[in-house]
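Folded chain entry —
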Amino acid sequence: MSIVSLPGLKAMIEEISQSHNIPRSAVQQALREALLKGYERYRRSQRLDQRFHFDEEYFDNFEVDLDIEEEGFRVLSTKTIVEEVQNSDHQISLKEVQEVASEAQLGDSVVLDVTPDQGEFGRMAAIQTKQVLSQKLRDQQRKLIKEEFQDLEGTVLQSRSLRFEQQSVIMALSSGFGRPEVEAELPKREQLPNDNYRINSTFKVYLKKVREGPHRGPQLVVSRAAAGLVVYLFANEVPEIEDEVVRIVAVAREANPPSRHVGPRTKIAVDTLERDVDPVGACIGARGSRIQVVVNELRGEKIDVIRWSPDPSTYIANALSPAQVDQVLLVNPEERQAHVLVAEDQLSLAIGKEGQNVRLAARLTGWKIDIKDAAQYKKETTDISKQDTLEEDVDSNELKEDYEEGVEMPENVLDPEPVLDLSAQEEE
């Protein structure tokens, strides 16, 4: 069998494997596919003048055999045995095969060496092979990254900032000890305003998404603004959460507030089934030691830890911390609407700067919250009640005047119900 020589093939595979961080087997597969594309280019160039049509599946019966030891390759074609050949690329005559193998029959398949001569392969085919090889190596790298990180979506990993591309930061991400780093994109909307992304500075990031399909640039999208990062940091710092004594019920985070005058803030609701355990105290730690570690990692972000409650009124009141709530009125439980009454001096604290506190409380609880001044609300309620009573009195007086003037009244209005006279029936 003939062979097209590729001097230095073994060393080239080893070098590509190390520089692209992909296994040698993946490099060999990419090289086979690239050489086959080069062979296709070579065959198409032979029939340019004949206007021969090569469809997408024409070369499906061809394959490349890579010989690492001899440093070369062969092109093999699987052909079907027929009586009369109509396409020599896919068929071979029975008579020709029986000269070599007498037991051959119609319909059988044989594999033949169709390797071109070294000189015939041509410069254009070699260029095509090089271009396709680069593309195939990128595809193999993306495939391996996807397989490695697909199961790590929704987890927190250590990263290192590499460079800036437009408004995004390109991070070097490591999935485990001893494994090579992989590039990931940290978009502008996923960054924290207080972070300083200096080159080689390290951050914990939340792996948000592994992109599907061919993409230019990094396939991994990471976040510093995701609520999952806060959950991970608390779980990593609070042993009671890891031991499932304390559980995180809900998290509402505003890492990038709509106004630059408002800082990042998070509200987290925790609960426990153990009577002797204070879930809020466990998350805060002695003198705030535990929550301070989380705050430092998030570059000073404000964090409110509140106690979850199955009672909506209690839960809403807790969620508006640090404001003191006088009363919670569930005005429309079906639509999950509530009025929260607070003292005048607590009004601005309950609403928060530019509405941030009540906005996060609404996200945390899932209720539409309307903050009201308790004194003003009670005054308005009293005025409305008096007005309703006054209107009822006016209506009653008008009906009475109409009755005294002999105006015909509707049935059952001010007329007493008829009384059944039983005495007359007894005399009869």
